[in-house]
Design goal:
Elements: H1 29-32, E1 40-42, E2 52-58, E3 67-68, E4 73-79, E5 81-86, E6 89-94, E7 98-101, E8 107-111, E9 117-123, E10 131-132
Antiparallel strand pairs: 1-2, 2-9, 3-10, 4-7, 4-9, 5-6, 5-8
Protein name: Cupin 2 conserved barrel domain protein
Pfam families: Cupin_2
InterPro entries: Cupin_2 (IPR013096), Flavonoid_dioxygenase-like (IPR052538), RmlC-like_jellyroll (IPR014710), RmlC_Cupin_sf (IPR011051)
């Protein structure tokens, strides 16, 4: 086995990727599901991956508050409609659309469709780092 080199992110957090062996691994959705919800959270560091993601499944009107990350976040809308705030601009994305948020940019989204929003939110980091926007 080749040990992973120890690395830290810009905040000093250990982001060393563990070695997971030589075979493919299937991670059951129930291991990734957030408590009390339908959204899945995959943190790459825990599984030997260099990326992390949320598979968001939300009801109309739902979405996270303004926040930012020190890396890019790429969103792919799989089903429904999302109104996405990126900095001072709002964009509307539908099934099949992709949006990229630059590092350190305040952003949020809301399900503005009539049904479920299913969206993959890919974090370009093996660990999720987030700053929440201060309340007004």
């Amino acid at each position: 086995m080749i040990p992973a080199a120890a690395r830290t992110d810009t905040r000093g957090n250990d982001v060393t990727e563990p070695h997971q062996g030589a075979g493919p691994v299937v991670i059951p959705a129930e291991q990734l599901r957030l408590p009390g919800g339908r959204t899945l959270r995959f943190e790459g560091k825990d599984h030997g991956s260099g990326v992390s993601f949320f598979l968001v499944i939300s009801n109309p009107g739902e979405g996270p508050a303004l926040h930012r990350h020190p890396y890019t976040e790429t969103w792919s809308v799989l089903e429904g409609e999302a109104t996405i705030r990126i900095g001072d601009e709002d964009v509307v994305a539908h099934a099949g659309d992709t949006t990229v948020v630059p590092p350190d940019t305040w952003h949020a989204f809301t399900n503005t469709g009539d049904g479920d929003l299913r969206m993959m939110c890919i974090h370009a980091s093996p660990v999720m780092l987030q700053d929440d926007h201060p309340a007004p």
